[in-house]
Design brief:
This protein is 40% helix and 34% strand. The chain contains two helices and eight strands, in the order H-E-E-E-E-E-E-E-E-H. A four-stranded antiparallel sheet has the order 1-8-3-6. The protein has a four-stranded antiparallel sheet with strand order 2-7-4-5, with no helix packed on it. A hairpin with a 5-residue loop joins strand 4 and strand 5. Helix 1 runs parallel beside helix 2. The longest helix has 66 residues. The N and C termini lie far apart (116 Å).
Length: 192
Amino acid sequence: MEAILLFFFILGTTLAHRIALPATKRECFFEDLHVNDKMTVTYQVGGGGNLDINFFLEDPDKKHVVDHKLQSTGTYSTTADKDGRWTYCFSNEMSSITDKEVSFNVHGVIYVADDGVVAPIEREVRGLAIGLQSVKDEQEYIVVREKTHRNTAESTNERVKWWSVAQMILLFAVCGWQVYYLKSFFEVKRVI
């Protein structure tokens, strides 16, 4: 029984990646799947431009299964209907200037045919594994969002600081000019 539980924990594989995607480029990754294997790709753009990216998934026959255009986040799950190499790509080809930072996870479950008898504890372990994976995905999403918001807050703080310094310099300059100008009103001018 312990061997079966260990086997199912090993079957649910998770790969987390973060890539820097230069402008006008595409990055593709491959997974070799067999019939009835499940694969889920979750992605999020963490930095660069409008935080959008193109994502597509191709089956072994190079037919597009999914095609997400200009999305900042996305999730797609598929069950392989044929053996072969499945390709998923992230494209920044629509951007000519801005590089993007993309973080993504790939979850795979290898299909194991049930012999009709599934222990209740095994069913519970599978459900817990799926729930745990979704919690991990959500946590990674929150970490990326927090990083984006922190960068925005730090950038805004930096701009406010320099704007305050500029205002202070301008205030001292205006004060100095006013003192000089008012002082000239009270000077005695003699005509000879």
